[in-house]
Design brief:
heterodimer, A: alpha/beta, D-Maltodextrin-Binding Protein, domain 2, 2 domains, 5-stranded mixed beta sheet, 46% helix, 15% strand, B: MetI-like fold, two-stranded antiparallel ribbon, 1% strand
Chain lengths: 425, 288
């Protein structure tokens, strides 16, 4: 049953009808007969420039359909609009969503199964970045998502500060605390340079939790929030902020925090920064000091969550639009485009052919930071296929982490509260 | 006065009543109904009775939105009144400089909320913002203006006051210029000093202006959304979650239409109650 059919027509259609008028129209054919499809994307800055460049190239081939790409804000704003558009019967044919959301949308019947589309089995994707490796049991489910901009959390290091402090790149949590302490610069009571910065958000906490040997959801699908590993993860942040005073307290919410972290790092106000590989090229191009990247320091194991987004087609869109969107999606996963996207941004190339080609041409020898990022493929942890994951992230964990870190509440008690909330309907 | 035909007043009222019913009453009733369902816009809705209201109470979201909105409104309304009045008193004079300053102060009111929010995010940055730099330069401690749960709401309120004080000033200026100079002359002849003249002449004469500024800034503070969305997204730790933003967060970020509808309904009742109170007070004053 399609998602559109799920919605009762009577009272809700009145509400949704008003929304439909304000959302982008998704006509599948231009006046001149050219096929077209709508793509809603969630990039600003450099990533947007690269996507627009690729779109121009796609459109330069007259055999290709027209892709009407529209910027829809950050990942969560875009998701809100996509969901509203689906309910209003004005869904775009294609969008891209964060990995945690795919199970929720798929189980709600909003996503188009892609197995039947031409060439779906021959996409040459890197398993750890494809649906098969991004989710526990991802290979056994219908194909709903194709990797687009995939990333992992990574540590950015101000090479000049590290050298001045005569330190090595920290490799585990105790070395991280020691390095952050050594790199923090104080002038009286004021902290001029923070030894360590990291957005206090779900993705980085999951990275810490995975490194401490835990997982958010157990094998039976119960939300455990990592048990003791989750507590250790949260406790590390609290120690860095309150006991050591070497980590800048929460930088802001959602992607504001990521931007603030990047700005602080580039301005020399932070020596070590945890962020996404997505910022690699931007940071390298704008830093006035040598930038090193390194895997996140580990606790009991080396593990990171996969991040970034995957392309999805929306079931509610018209058939010919979906076919046009699929054509673009396949084109984007071809070697040339995959390489351009990855090397221009910092995202990981999503096809094996692209990686082989970059290795063959010596790209990774010339770009050691990219090589570090690629090495993280071995440490990627799949997400549980849990439709509640998105709610746990947005409604429970993000505010809970912010609260626990700011008010320095007991980490075990905070997570116990989170588990209780996760059990509520 | 009696109408020639009994139905004529209703005919004249009909277009307005129809619009009000279509765009206010009907959505309100729709929200009342939706508040009894759990619905995420994608999967079929489920009837849950009063569970949405219970969840809002148990999770403390209702009380938090209520408390934050009232605190924000109290600071914005009183701040706009005081600052608007002070500016009006200072700038109620002739001359190019006064005219220029009046225009400059008022110009903030016509700038968009988004632009104001972005500007102040830059100014208030806890590390490198101009405000932080000035505070440090004069020996004050560093403050995380938007990141500290104890002060973030008041920081937003101060930004809002900065934005709307120019409007309050214009209203007070109009009120000041309406006061006959003869009243001041009479008060001066009676030996009243500047403070006495303000207390006995200016302030009573500005009563309607103050009521107008109070009402408009109250409405504006209850509608606040852009500034929260841009500057804090309701954080840190929900400290700046005002009613309208809480509704947005429930429906668009948490995917909970039912809870958003429940909040909308409660918010609607709150606004209606305040309006009724204000009407009662105004009419009471009119009757006196």
């Amino acid at each position: 049953m399609s998602a559109r059919k799920c919605v009762p027509a009577s009272r809700r259609s009145v509400l949704l009808g008003t929304l439909a008028g304000s959302l982008a129209a998704c006509s599948a054919r231009r006046g001149d007969g050219t096929e077209r499809a709508a793509l809603w994307y969630a990039y600003g800055g450099k990533n947007r420039e690269v996507l627009e460049r690729l779109l121009r190239r796609f459109h330069s081939d007259p055999r290709h359909p027209r892709i009407d790409a529209t910027f829809q804000g950050d990942y969560f704003e875009s998701l809100a609009k996509v969901r509203t558009a689906i309910a209003a019967g004005a869904a775009p044919a294609m969008t891209h969503v964060v990995a945690e959301v795919v199970p929720y949308l798929a189980e709600a019947g909003a996503l188009e199964p892609l197995d039947g589309y031409e060439g779906a089995a021959e996409l040459d994707l890197i398993p750890g970045l494809a649906q098969s490796g991004s989710y526990q049991g991802g290979a056994e489910r219908p194909l709903y998502a194709v990797p687009f901009n995939r990333s992992v959390p990574i540590m950015y290091v101000n090479g000049a500060m590290l050298e001045r402090a005569r330190l090595d790149v920290p490799r585990d949590w105790s070395e991280l605390r020691a390095a952050a302490n050594a790199l923090t610069v104080r002038r009286g009571a004021e902290i001029v340079v923070w030894g360590f910065e990291c957005p206090v958000s779900w993705w980085f906490w999951v990275a810490l939790l995975a490194s401490a040997g835990g997982s958010v959801v157990d094998e039976r699908g119960t939300v455990t929030l990592g048990g003791q590993a989750g507590v250790r993860a949260l406790d590390l942040w609290q120690a860095l902020i309150h006991r050591d005073r070497v980590m800048r307290p929460p930088l802001g919410r959602d992607y504001n925090a990521w931007q603030v972290g990047t700005q602080d790092f580039l301005a020399g106000r932070a020596a070590l920064l945890w962020s996404s590989t997505a910022f690699l090229r931007y940071i390298e191009e704008n830093a006035r000091f040598p930038v090193k990247v390194a895997p996140l320091p580990r606790d009991v194991r080396h593990a990171v969550p996969n991040g970034g987004t995957l392309f999805v087609l929306l079931r509610a869109a018209e058939e010919r639009e979906k076919r046009a969107a699929w054509q673009f999606l396949r084109w984007m996963t071809q070697r040339e485009q995959t390489i351009e996207w990855a090397t221009s941004t910092g995202y990981i190339p999503v096809t094996r052919g692209a990686v082989t080609e970059l290795e063959r041409t010596g790209y990774y020898d010339a770009h050691s930071n990219d090589k570090v990022v690629l090495g993280e493929l071995d440490a990627i942890e799949p997400w549980p296929w849990s439709p509640t994951l998105f709610r746990v992230q947005r409604e429970i964990m993000d505010p809970l982490l912010e609260d626990a870190v700011l008010s320095h509440t007991d980490a075990a008690e905070a997570l116990a509260k989170g588990r209780r909330e996760a059990r509520l309907p | 006065m009696r109408p020639a035909r009994r139905h004529e007043p209703y005919l004249l009222l009909a277009p307005t009543l129809l619009l009000l019913a279509l765009f206010f009453l009907f959505p309100f009733l729709l929200a009342a109904r939706e508040s009894l369902y759990a619905w995420d816009l994608l999967t079929p809705p489920t009837y849950v009775g009063l569970a949405n209201y219970r969840a809002l109470l148990e999770r403390g979201e209702l009380l938090r939105a209520f408390r934050n909105t009232l605190a924000y409104s109290a600071v914005v309304v009183s701040g706009a009144l005081v600052l608007g009045l002070l500016l009006a008193l200072l700038l109620d004079r002739k001359g190019r400089l006064a005219a220029f300053v009046r225009s400059a102060v008022f110009s903030a009111y016509v700038v968009s909320w988004v632009a104001v929010a972005l500007l102040f995010m830059w100014l208030l940055d806890g590390e490198a913002g101009l405000v932080t730099r000035i505070a440090l330069a004069v020996g004050l401690p560093k403050k995380n203006w938007l990141g500290d749960p104890d002060i973030a709401l008041y920081t937003l309120a101060v930004v809002s006051i900065w934005k709307i004080a120019g409007y309050a000033m214009i209203v007070f200026l109009a009120g000041l210029q309406d006061i006959p100079p003869v009243l001041y002359e009479a008060a001066a002849l009676d030996g009243a000093g500047p403070f006495m003249r303000f207390r006995s002449v200016t302030w009573p004469a500005l009563g309607p202006s103050a009521a107008f500024v109070g009402t408009t800034s109250l409405i504006l503070s209850f509608q606040a959304f852009d500034i929260v969305r841009i500057m804090t997204q309701g954080g840190p730790v929900h400290a700046t979650e005002l009613f309208v933003y809480a509704i947005y967060e429930q429906i668009f970020l948490n995917l909970r239409v039912g809870r958003a509808s429940a909040l909308t309904l409660i918010f609607g009742v709150l606004v209606l109650s305040l309006t009724a109170l204000q009407l009662r007070l105004t009419r009471g004053r009119g009757a006196a």
